[in-house]
Protein 1
Amino acid sequence: QVQLVESGGGLVPPGGSLTLSCVSSGSIFSNRAMGWYRQAPGNQREWVASITSGGATNYVDYVKGRFTISRDNTKKTLYLQMNNLKPEDTAVYYCYQFPTSRVSEYWGQGTQVTVSA
């Protein structure tokens, strides 16, 4: 069983920045592809960004150039640096470990990000 614990959410004004962190309890974090999803009120959960075990990254179009996903395998921690935040970025952000043929997927409990003046 893997536990993913997010932190770093909060209230920021438009144009502000936040960095989310996700600490994994998994023993082989470095071999796992990881991602961030978000869910705004009334909306479905949506993919935001992902990073492979080798460090390759992908982003949904509307966060490209503003968000950066990264990982520190020595700390078993996933990050999401969010800059130039907009009100439409308001959501609960979830850390996600992608499944493999042998390992299930895992979700964190979520951290609230609110962008408002």
Protein 2
Amino acid sequence: QVQLVESGGGLVQPGGSLRLSCAASGTIFSIYVMGWYRQAPGKQRELVAHIFSLGTISYADSVKGRFTISRDNAKNTVYLQMNSLKPEDTAVYYCNARMSTISRDYWGQGTQVTVSS
């Protein structure tokens, strides 16, 4: 079993920054992909960014140039640096991980990010 624990959410003013962290623990040999999704009230969960074990990264168009994803493979941890935050970034952010191309998805419990003045 794998557990994902997120931290770093909170309330920030428009234009501000936050850094989310997600640490994976449990029976882990390697992690194929780690990423962040978000879900705003009344909307579907959407991919924000993900990073593969060899370093390939992709971002949602809405966050390109503002968010940066990174991972520390030795610590099984993924980070999301969020800059120039906008009110529309308000959502619950979920960490996601998959151990291989055919494994199930693992999810964190979610962390609230609120961007408001």
